[in-house]
Design goal:
mainly alpha, 14 helices, 83% helix, 0% strand, flat, membrane, transmembrane, transmembrane helix
Length: 322
Amino acid sequence: MDYVLGLLNGVTDNEALARLLIVGAIGLSTVIAVITLTLLVLGLQSPLQRRLALIKRDHSSAATGREAPGNLQLLLERVGRRITPSAAGKVSATRTLLTHAGYGSASSLQVYWAVRLLLPLTLAGVSLLILPMVPNVSPMTGLGVVVMGAAVGWLLPAMYVDKRRTARQGRLRAAFPDALDLMVVCVESGLALPQAIERVAEEMAVSQAELAEELALVNAQIRAGISSTEALRQLADRTGLEDIQGLVSLLAQSIRFGTSVAATLRIYAEEFRDRRMQAAEEMGAKIGTKLVFPLIFCLWPSFFLVAIGPVIIGIIKTFGKP
């Protein structure tokens, strides 16, 4: 407590104001803790409130086979519902980011913003608890550590979601050529496009579970009455892959003009293989440029040291004698 008082006193230069801030922070923390415990004990533990929360988040264990969310998740949803930005553009961008990362549930947005609020507060509180144990820490250094902890807590969820999105899109992009080849085989053997998508999802359920799940969702949407083009367009929106967007455009034109879907898929598969080959050749062409910096900083100094070092030593010995 003395350390925190000295920290605030060094910032405000007013001991009375520093004590008032400490008392206010303790009171606010107590109120938040009491409200949280009240929600957990009275609200979330109540069967009626729990059932209403499940219905509100469109959750049905019997229909989906998923586990019912725990009290912590429901609490995060409640907190996130209060602090979710009201700007439609920001909400849409965050929703798209979470969908591309694989978080497509209705409550993912609320949980994301709740974590982004609570994690900085948690890290800042942990920093305030640890700093008094570290000797010889100036008030400004302690304040910087607290601010840095809060900043890390704010940025860490966004970095994690962005990294997860990149990894998921990479896995989907790697699995898409195999799915496309299987789809070509199924369509050319006489299956319609929805049946072909269903068969490909079944075949890839073990090796590529994420893409198989997305294709199964496309098939479920088609069975529900959505057109094949619209279902595939939603697949492209969920994954964010340009390859799938190109396939959707070609299939939409094929269905509109009545051309063969099998021929369209085969042509796109060939074009996709050509693009993969061109991408591989482009990456191979960049290797020479990327090797310049390792050669300059790692190999060439050692080479010059071995090649010119003995000569320099001989010159020094020769001209260094009196």
